[in-house]
Amino acid sequence: MGEIMFDRIALIGIGLIGSSIARDVRELGLARHVTISTRSEDTLKRAEELALGTDYTVSAAEAVKDADLVIVSVPVGASESVAQQIAPHLKPGAIVTDVGSTKASVIAQMAPHMPDNVHFIPGHPLAGTEKSGPDAGFAGLFRERWCIFTPLPGTDAEALEKLKDFWRALGSRVDEMDAEHHDKVLAIVSHLPHIIAYNIVGTADDLETVTESEVIKYSASGFRDFTRLAASDPTMWRDVCLHNKDAILEMLARFSEDLASLQRAIRWGEGDKLFELFSRTRAIRRSIVQAGQDVDAPDFGRHALDQKK
Ligand SMILES: NC(=O)C1=CN([C@@H]2O[C@H](COP(=O)(O)OP(=O)(O)OC[C@H]3O[C@@H](n4cnc5c(N)ncnc54)[C@H](O)[C@@H]3O)[C@@H](O)[C@H]2O)C=CC1
Ligand SMILES: O=C(O)C(=O)Cc1ccc(O)cc1
Predict the structure, then answer these.
(1) What is 4-176's CATH number, 3.40.50.720, 2.60.40.10, 3.30.750.44, 1.10.530.10?
(2) Strands 69-72 and 95-98
(3) pLDDT (tens digit per residue) in 267-290
(4) At what angle do helices 221-229 and 192-206 cross, to 10 degrees?
(5) What does the mean pLDDT of the chain come to?
(6) Burial of 189 (0-12, 13-18, 19+ CB in 10 A)
(7) Can you give the residue ranges of the Prephenate/arogenate dehydrogenase domain (predicted)?
(8) Helices (H) and strands (E) in the chain, counts
(9) Distance of CA 307 to the CA centre of its chain
(10) Cα 268 to Cα 175: distance, rounded to the nearest angstrom
C-alpha cells in the first residue's frame, strides 16, 4: 500500500485510461474516496460492478464537489463540455488535470472555463492499447512509461509537483514541455502511425483483386501489427485528428514527400538508396530497445519495479 495522497479523487470518464488510473489508485491506496462519473448509466454501472471507485454519479458537476484531484479522461473533443459542466462546482485549491492525446486544443477548450482558485495542469500519459472501455483497463499500465505535462505559464510549482508525485506513484516517469511542442512530437510518434495503420488496412479492404478472406488468412505479422493499431477507438482517433490538425498535416506532408522519394527509388531500382534508408531506420529501433522503451519485450519495464516491491 502507498500513502494516501488525496482525500478525494474524481475521475471523469472511466474508459481504458480512467479505469487503469482507478485500479492503480485502489491497489496503491492513494485516495480515501474515489468518485467516478461518466455520461452513460451503463458504463457507470459497469464501473461499480468492477468496484473501481467509492462513489458513482452520472453528474460530472456532482462528482467534483469535494474532490482535491480531478482527472478528466474523455475523448479530447469532449473536453470543453466537461470543463463547462465541472467549472462552477470545483473545490477551491483543487488540481484539475486531463490525459488527452492532444494538448493545445484541450487547453483552448478547458482553460477559459477554469476558475482562478483551482490549478489546471494538462497532462498526457504515453501509455495505452487499442482497447477501450472500463473492462479494458489494468493496474500497472503506466509503469515505466512517460507522462508529459504541459503546464500553463504561472502554474503553481507545488501543485505541479504534487501531480507529478501522483503519476510517479503510478510508476511513470514525468516530463514537461509546452503544448505546441508536445503536439508536434506526438503527431509523428503516435498520431501518424495510427493514421497510416487506418489507411493501410483501409487500402487492403478496398482491393478488388485480393479478397477479404485472403487478407485475414495470409496476414503476415507486419500487417497484423497495423491491424492492431487500426482497431483503436474510432471516436478517440477522430477527435485526435480533428484536434491536432495542423501538426498532423505538417507531418503528413513530410511523410508523403519521403514516401514519394521511396517510390522513386523502387521505380528506378535504386538499391543503394533503399539499403541506406533501411539501415538508418534499423538503428533507430535498436536505440529504442537499448533505452528500455521496447514494450514488445516480454517483461518490459516490469522487472525492475517488481524487484523493488
Ligand atoms: N487509449 C489510449 O491508448 C490512450 C488514450 N489517451 C487519451 O485518454 C482519453 C480517454 O481515452 P480512453 O480511456 O482510451 O477512451 P475510452 O473510450 O476507453 O473511454 C472514454 C470515456 O469517456 C466517456 N465519454 C465519451 N464521450 C464523452 C462525452 N462527450 N462527455 C463525457 N464523457 C464522455 C466515455 O463514457 C468513457 O467513460 C482520450 O482523450 C485519449 O486521447 C491517452 C493515452 C493513451
Ligand atoms: O496502442 C498503442 O500502440 C498506442 O500507441 C497507445 C497510445 C494511444 C494514444 C496515446 O495518446 C498514447 C498511447
Answers:
(1) 3.40.50.720
(2) parallel
(3) 999 999 999 999 999 999 999 888
(4) 110
(5) 93
(6) exposed
(7) 7-296
(8) 14, 9
(9) 27
(10) 45
Are 55 and 29 a contacting pair, CB within 8 Å?
no
- The CATH code for residues 179-268 is 1.10.3660.10
Q: Look up cell 462528482; give the residue.
A: 63
SS (H, E, C) 172-214: CEEEECCHHHHHHHHHHHHHHHHHHHHHHHHHHHHCCCCCHHH
- Ligand 1 centroid from CA 272, angstroms: 45
Altogether, the residues listed in the chain come to a count of: 309
pTM for this model (two decimals): 0.94
Mutate which of 74, 81, 103 for ligand 1 pocket (most atoms within 8 A of beta carbon): 74
R_g (Cα) of the chain, nearest Å: 21
Location of C-alpha cell 462513489: 55
Mean pLDDT within 37-50: 98
C-alpha cell at 169: 506513484
Ligand 1 pocket at CB < 6 A: 13-18, 38-40, 43, 73-76, 78, 81-82, 99-101, 125, 128-129, 132-133, 233, 236, 240
- Which grid coordinates are listed for 54? 467509492
Edge-to-edge order in the sheet of strand 146-149: 123-125, 146-149, 173-176
Domain boundaries, given as residue ranges, for the chain: 4-176, 179-268
d(CA 215, CA 207): 10
Residue 68 · residue 95 · CB < 8 Å: yes
